[in-house]
Structures are given as structure tokens and as C-alpha cells.
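Reminder: ligand-aware prediction takes two inputs, not one.
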Amino acid sequence: TQSTGLADKLQPPFFIAHRGGAARYPEHSMEAYDADAKAGFPIEQDVQLLKDGTPVIIHDSTADRTMTGHGKVKDLTLAQWEKMRIKPIKPGGKPVKPLQLKEVLDKFGGKHLLVPEIKSKDAKNALIESIVKRDLQRDVIVQSFYYEAAVAAAAKDIPTLWLSSDAPSDDKFKAAKSDGITYWGYDESLPPDAVKRAVHAGLKPVAWTVNTVGDARRQFKAGAVGVFTNNPWKLSKAHYG
Ligand code: G3P
Ligand code: CA
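Here is what comes back for the chain with SN-glycerol-3-phosphate:
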């Protein structure tokens, strides 16, 4: 097992390309990921399973909003997924192929920092096994709203970001730290006091989804080490004191 990797080199302030950088490219498209890799931004993936257990990259639990097809992701066959395309976000744009987790790991693994999220609970084992099989434990940051999923990744020596919608208690922050979790992901609307308490417990706060320079400044000042943003190109150009 590698002892250090891309995740260990990450320096604050950092800008994770949320859904690949959805301000400029179709969500989770290879076009988005290529642009992120070129610019050196950590790239987010939302990971869910198809009906046959294939891990794929899509945010919503249904195909309807972002894809040319319809239906619940967990009910789609691989053949249906392969036939669907990601809708363009600009008039006249071409629909593009959706991505499987393995395509992303094979292309970027060990070369660019990936930040996959265990989006559906049942994707936990497939995601962790895919990372361990490729010896990419230190080249990714695994995130999840499911605490047990985050702890399971941490147990494999994978740097882990636990997401929560509410402000956890000090005891919960302390438990997360002692369970091996490195980062705490939080909604930018939570009070700065929660960010300070996370830092005090030894966690590194990362805010989502931060899309203006002013909002990023506020989060870094409160103690965030990084942000998820739809526009890392814009936010990374600003100065943060
Ligand atoms: O994973 C961080 C952030 O993306 C959480 O919100 O709904 O965009 O996955 P969501
Ligand atoms: Ca996400």
C-alpha cells in the first residue's frame, strides 16, 4: 500500500470541481473532468449503482434532470445507461456519454486527485473495493453523508470527508476525529461557530457549494481549508488573505 499520495499533497485553500465544474460543463462529463485535470483541480464524482451493481457517476437518484433518458438510477440496466447521454447545458451543444466509475479511475487514478462521494448507501463497498484494487487509497478523498460509509473508507487508510447537513455536536465531531475522519463537509449556510468547533475537534472543514469569491472568502476566514464549487476557474483566481 502506498504511504503518501495526491491527497497528502493537497494544500489549502483548495477548490474541488463540484460535479466536475457544473458552471461551465455538463455535470460529470469527461469534457468537464478533462478541463479540471488540465487546470489541476480536485474532481468530484457522485457515485451510485445501476441495477446490476455497476458503479456510475450521476448526482440525482433519477436520470431525468441531467440525462436524455428517464427512470431511477438503481433500476437502470447497463445497456440502458450506455444508450443514454448527458444533456448539453448550452444551446446547440452535443449530448455526451455518461461515465462509469471504472472509466474515471482508470483514466485519472494516481494522476489527478479524485473526490468520489458514496451517494447511494449501496455504493460503499463497490467504491472502496475499486480504490483498494487499484492501490489509490492516498490518491483520493472519499466523501459521504452516510457516517458509517465514511468510517469504512477511513478504516482502509483512505482520507475521508464526512458530509453533514446540520451542525454536529462537539461530541460527534470528537467521535469523527477518533474514527479516523479527516475532513468535515458542510453547507455554506451553517453558522461559522460550527466551523470553529470542527477545527477545535481536529477536523478540516470544507464548504459546499460555494460559487462566489465573497462567499469563499467568508468560508476561508471562518476556518475552511477548501470549498466545493461549480466554478473553480473563477474562484481559484482570486486572492485569499
Ligand atoms: O458532496 C459535496 C456536495 O456535493 C454535497 O451536495 O447534493 O451536490 O452532492 P450534493
Ligand atoms: Ca456531491
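The CA atoms of residues 212 and 235 lie 7 Å apart. The chain has one domain: 11-235. We will return to this case in the review session.
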